[in-house]
Specification:
Largest sheet: 7 strands, parallel
Structural class: alpha/beta
Distance between the termini: 62 Å
Radius of gyration: 21 Å
Shape: globular
Helix content: 10-25%
Number of strands: 22
Number of helices: 8
């Protein structure tokens, strides 16, 4: 097998062999080469395709010049303090129809932003990278990791050229557009400059998370993944499941349900047990026509025309379950900070619980195009303390 790879320089760069797990990720083989590799491997491992993954946005990006939101008040009121924690760090006046306006349960063009020391929380963005120089992040993109692959070019290491990752990171924790400002954002580039990747780049991203968890044994992390497959990747499903089983006490993985208007259970990552899968709604809490749906969706969040950070210090409107996912990631980061004794498994249970303070109802799940979708009537919310008024 090694002789075969050495004879093909291009192919050698497209393989990863993991002896511990006994699988080989491969790409661009001829049929005869595939048969020869299987013969040489025998019973020593399993040969599986290196499936491709890419961004799937339902609409084009509208890029704007940066216009920071107006911060109406910079300090908390007495009523905004609960159990020694600052719940309402500031009130943000919203000059547009914002996803943040839904979070406190009141549509009043204002958002009560959390004021806890959220720098204690770490969120890993597995995406196209993050433009950490954007002033909205205020230097809080604390690390940048890269999972370069010769299979998915063009690829500029550690740089977000596509803009998707910068947008989703802004919804998690930018100063003006983030659900939970001040979190530590870890950029992990697993997708190319054109928004495509493979099983191996995704697994590499999780390896970066694993390394950090092993080096920071007392810290917790949320992985936010606004990407997905058009079908099932058994290799990635197995790997993510092992991550949940091994690090579930300190790790929560939040994923996009997908934008193909099909059952979410039919595609990686939403089909994986132990992750939080997010579906999308519009401004009226109506399930988006393109959002994947069904029993594998855990919670709904706004995902249409979402304004957030973008490349070159700009902002942009984008739509997709990709935009709904980081909002949930940000809310869960704050919820975990307020409930530090909870494990990651308990956080996931809170999302799936019928009576959780993490969401409210009122989602319209019927569409003209089909019967009721089977998605949950659960709409993400942030109230501080959770279950009460801020």
């Amino acid at each position: 097998m090694h002789r075969l790879l050495n004879n093909r320089t291009k192919i050698r760069n497209e393989f990863q062999f993991n002896k511990a797990r006994g699988f080989l990720l491969a790409g661009n083989l001829t049929q005869s080469e595939l048969q020869e590799m299987r013969r040489q491997m025998g019973k020593r491992g399993t040969l599986v395709p290196n499936r491709r993954i890419k961004l799937d946005l339902p609409s084009k990006v509208e890029v704007l010049q940066t216009k920071p939101l107006n911060v109406a008040s910079s300090g908390p009121s007495a009523a905004a303090t609960c159990t020694g924690k600052t719940c309402c760090g500031r009130t943000v006046s919203l000059s547009f129809n914002s996803n943040l306006d839904w979070l406190d349960g009141t549509r009043n063009s204002k958002y009560c932003s959390p004021g806890d020391d959220t720098t204690k929380m770490d969120v890993f963005m597995l995406d196209t990278g993050v433009d950490g120089s954007h002033p909205e992040f205020a230097g809080r993109v604390t690390s940048s990791e890269d999972c370069y692959s010769a299979n998915v070019l063009p690829w500029t290491p550690n740089v977000d050229v596509e803009g998707h990752g910068t947008h989703t990171a802004g919804t998690v924790g930018s100063t003006s557009y983030g659900a939970t400002p001040n979190v530590n954002i870890h950029a992990v580039k697993v997708l190319s400059d054109e928004g495509s990747g493979t099983d191996s780049t995704v697994i590499c991203g999780f390896e970066k998370v694993k390394t950090w968890l092993n080096a920071n044994s007392t810290r917790k992390a949320i992985v936010s993944m606004s990407l997905g497959y058009s079908g099932i990747s058994k290799t990635v499903n197995t790997y993510v499941t092992s991550m949940v089983n091994t690090y579930g006490s300190r790790l929560v993985i939040v994923v996009a349900a997908g934008n193909d208007n099909v059952k979410a259970c039919s595609a990686t990552f939403a089909c994986i047990d132990g992750v939080v899968a997010v579906g999308s709604t519009g401004a009226t809490k109506t399930e988006s026509s393109w959002s994947n749906y069904g029993s594998c969706v855990d919670v709904m969040a706004p995902g249409e025309n979402i304004l957030s950070t973008y490349l070159s210090n700009q902002t942009a409107y984008m739509s997709g379950t990709s935009m709904a996912t980081p909002l949930v990631s940000g809310v869960l980061a704050q919820y975990w900070l307020q409930n530090p004794t909870l494990t990651g498994n308990a956080i996931r249970t809170s999302v799936s619980s019928a009576s959780s303070a993490l969401f409210t109802g009122g989602v319209s799940l019927k569409r003209v195009s089909r019967k009721p979708s089977g998605s949950p009537n659960k709409f993400i919310q942030y109230k501080c303390p959770f279950g009460g008024a801020c």
